[in-house]
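User: Fold this; tokens only.

Assistant: Input:
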Amino acid sequence: MTAVIGMRELARHSDILQKYDYVDVEDKKTHEYKGLFVSPKYAQEFKKFLEKKISDEKQEKLDEIMQYAGMFSGEFTDLTTNEKIREKSYTNRMKKYEQ
């Protein structure tokens, strides 16, 4: 079960968190979304999900940066910058088709 409660209601009745799987918190006056409370029985599973998601996002950013690392390691020393970029994009496109 889920519920949407206000900040004041949460402060006055914190035991309400025990009744629901998760509780959305919003400012009742401005209807601004403030956050989410997750039931203790789902907390570990949700924490693992968030850790995996954050890790995947970091890896994606790292992969973006590392695609140019070959240029700096001397892998393509005899190519111009445009040729290097074309070579990397061609390699990336071929990887997509191989999958």
